[in-house]
């Protein structure tokens, strides 16, 4: 029948696209996150380029687990901005309450995907609030970024971890060492034509 | 000088090899872990083959984060078996003390690498102790597997999560949907010849 | 001025009350959660009473970290039920999508408060869905409990961990052993009159 | 019989004592950890005293979950110092390898006990290495503190979270607000005489 309900099926492309669209709507660019990565990593890799930082941020954002956290966090920020949450949750998120830690929990689920070595970088940028994080924390704008603030720091920390793993692999190859690649195969063997994510 | 100390540099191949060697020495095969994966996943994917399960377990074991947890856990088991730990840590690990949870913490760092959807599968096999887990939990052998027991369950849970992500990708491709692959590029662009991990 | 905005200040009583009210509105009773605890723990403590299980569930629910997770999770369930979330988040939560793991992440933040020994119990009940969890998972009612389902399992697992710690303390005291109590002092020294949480 | 093996039973006092003894042997004092807490918290609570910081560190160290992580981490440091670990684990811990994250994982199990609000403080001190952390990171001494370093930062972060929760409770009481105390009852109802931890 024409109006029969189509059974639900996850559309991973739609989730990936929504993540990009919503980060953009909330005023955060991939370049700004890449700048945090550069800040965190340049002392370890003096030759690191902004292009590499951007690429690693994009790879982090391509992970389903990361997309889920980004979308859920932004959703809660938006609803808090519109005043549509239940009291006292509305108050806690609106005021970025210090004893409310669900934002940190979502952020951590992002860091975790690239392993525990990112914990430190996350805490560091979350405390110092450089660059884009300072703007997201400005409480005078009427915008609410209680979740997005922590999420952006987490994406930067995860991208930093990703870079650390890759730089080790490159070093071993330059040294001609036998190398054991980590889990690298594509999520599906025959990638669909028209995929717009690189490599 | 001939005996000058060579500066330390991580050799990822050596870490990967040691992981395989030590799991084998402690009596656990990839096939046994794959059997746990089959047990967990066959009701969702009736066509799932043992070959796929084995492959996914191998991919999980190729991750550095996983190797670190496996080696650290087995090390503590071995030292406990030899009676070489400090009291009261020796007692707690030797007796698989219920209030000692560091084994669960290491196990969780493995599950986390493939995302939170593996939490449930980990707890389930850890409670029911099917297959290889029953043998590792036999307290009458003199062997101590306080850590390995949880680690094996975690590897099986992580492999199950990995399968869930891949099956979704396959489904979307069969449906001809536009597809957004997750982070899939190789850790290094030019894999060294002689790498013995597949794909 | 009479209508000047009162500066925000967390009201912990309001958060605690809202947690109770919202669990009740969503149809979950403390007794039902206590029944999950009994199911998980009776084989270890044959003399465990329902009264003890209820008390331990209440203690878990008195923790701020737990209340934050409960309120956030229920909020997302309610909004999904009302169809008010952004696509594709709406679809994923409405359909309890298998690759969406934010519900497990919130659940884990609850289990963690009482330590890693609760991981296994959480996974076990979340897989088997006994008692109240079966009802919360019924997809034919039009109600959406994607988050609450996991949260209830997590509260039961946390209460089980709490019992394990306390039973150890009781055992040591019965044996006349010198005992080292864990962090037990009140969050504030002079509890306000009229507090309705026990002890 | 004289030589019959006494059945194992956890002695919580012995675990608590060993934690103190081993931290002392490894050269870390409660006062030094309290100084990290003061550094992290003084800007939020100008009247915070060193006595309060010391007390909160002691409360954190009284938790079983924390003691387990401390003892396991110090054990691995000591064995690495003695060169008794298996290659390549020996190399990774001896050199505080950047891609080895089990130390961060143990640290995180400590922070988690007092909730996610401590994540940021942990990362911050772990990056900046103030006070005692600078000494523990000195790689020229022959001592190895790969684990203890992260653990000390985690204990300081956890104590900071504990203070944040208590200060909120105090504020509410001063304001005469109805107050909902968190889980505060003693782990056992009749504390043994001679217990040397307060309240």
UniProtKB/TrEMBL annotation, chains A, B, C, D:
- Coiled-coil intervals, chain numbering: none
Q: Where is the composition biased (Basic and acidic residues)?
A: 167-189
State the InterPro entries in the record: PgpA-like_sf, YutG/PgpA
Domain YutG/PgpA residue range list: 28-164
Region Disordered, annotated ranges: 163-199
Q: SUPFAM superfamilies in the record, alphabetically?
A: YutG-like
Q: Organism's domain of life?
A: Bacteria
- What name has this protein been given in UniProt? Phosphatidylglycerophosphatase A
